């Protein structure tokens, strides 16, 4: 295994916010707990950790370099700036897939009965990074409500990840916003390991050991 003190890890965490106007946005229920737990576990393993986090209500973990961002566009630029120097990218962030096509500079008045908002796709940060991947180990997350393994494997291939962590969401007690989690770690060679149910901290420690660069 590579010397732990030389491993530089880039982790993304939390949701992004995509603004409709200065006081309204679309987002998702991610709290960033899994990404922050991974950052702590990586620091404990002796790694250098860059943590790019969307808006979360969590304390900055000791020993990480924190880069707060808000939108998917800001997250893309921050990850883009840090990716070439990292040995491992772990994308736990729940990046918004869409953003309003128009962001109004002033608060929109509610008007009468209904309103229609047109959305456009945000950039896929993970895919953009793996297109220029060199030495990096890349770990994606797949938040799924059903057919978890099949969708996660498809995402791993499409986004050219070395590993994907399949995460069941939409159920009370696991996934988004919960303190516990149960995940399936799938490697590009098809092998898989079921982790949990356990605390996000315990799962994070196991994941950091299993995906450590230089293991393969
Ligand atoms: N991801 C990303 N950029 C985006 C959307 C997702 O980098 N614009 C990353 C996530 O951080 C995660 C992986 O892609 O590591 C899978 O995210 P997920 O939301 O599960 O999948 P999507 O690609 O959004 O696909 P779908 O919504 O169709 O399930």
Helical content stands at 10-25%
The CATH homologous superfamily name equals CoaB-like
Which CATH architecture?
3-Layer(aba) Sandwich
Rg from C-alpha positions?
Answer: 17 Å
Number of helices: 5
End-to-end Cα distance, whole Å, is 8 Å
Number of beta strands: 12
Shape: globular
The CATH topology: Rossmann fold
Outline the low-pLDDT stretches.
none
Mean pLDDT: 93
Give helix and strand order, one letter per element, not per position: EEEHEEHEEEHEHEEEH
Summarize the structure in words:
The protein is an alpha/beta fold. The protein has a single domain, classed as CoaB-like (Rossmann fold). 25% of the residues lie in helices and 30% in strands. It is built from 5 helices and 12 strands. The protein has helices at 33-44, 72-83, 125-130, 148-158, 200-211; strands at 8-13, 18-21, 24-26, 48-53, 64-68, 88-91, 98-100, 119-121, 137-144, 163-168, 180-187, 192-199. The strands form 3 sheets. Strands 5-4-1-6-9-10-11-12 form an 8-stranded mixed beta sheet, sandwiched between helices. A two-stranded antiparallel ribbon has the order 2-3. Strands 7-8 form a two-stranded antiparallel sheet. Strand 11 (180-187) and strand 12 (192-199) form a beta hairpin. Helix 1 crosses helix 5 (200-211). The longest helix has 12 residues, at 33-44. The radius of gyration is 17 Å and the shape is globular. The model has no long low-confidence stretch (mean pLDDT 93). It binds cytidine-5'-triphosphate (CTP). Cytidine-5'-triphosphate (CTP) binds at residues 72, 91, 93, 95, 97, 122, 124-126, 140-143, 155, 159. The site of cytidine-5'-triphosphate has 15 residues, from helix 3 and strand 9.
């Amino acid at each position: 295994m590579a010397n732990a003190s030389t491993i530089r890890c880039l982790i993304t965490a939390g949701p992004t916010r995509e603004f409709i106007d200065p006081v309204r946005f679309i987002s998702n229920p991610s709290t960033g707990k899994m990404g922050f737990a991974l950052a702590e576990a990586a620091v404990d393993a002796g790694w250098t950790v860059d943590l790019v986090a969307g808006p979360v209500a969590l304390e900055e973990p000791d020993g990480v370099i924190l880069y707060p961002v808000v939108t998917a566009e800001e997250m893309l630029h921050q990850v883009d700036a840090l990716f070439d120097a990292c040995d491992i990218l772990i994308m736990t962030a729940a990046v918004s897939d869409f953003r309003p096509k128009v962001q109004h500079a002033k608060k929109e008045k509610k008007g009468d009965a209904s309103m229609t908002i047109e959305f456009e796709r945000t950039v896929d940060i993970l895919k953009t990074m793996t297109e220029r991947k060199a030495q990096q180990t890349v770990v994606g997350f797949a938040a799924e409500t059903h057919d978890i393994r099949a969708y996660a494997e498809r995402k791993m291939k499409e986004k050219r990840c070395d590993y994907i962590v399949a995460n069941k969401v939409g159920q009370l007690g696991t996934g988004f916003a919960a303190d516990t989690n149960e995940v399936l770690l799938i490697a590009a060679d098809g092998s898989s390991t079921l982790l949990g149910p356990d605390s996000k901290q315990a799962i994070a420690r196991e994941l950091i050991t299993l995906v450590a660069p230089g293991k393969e």
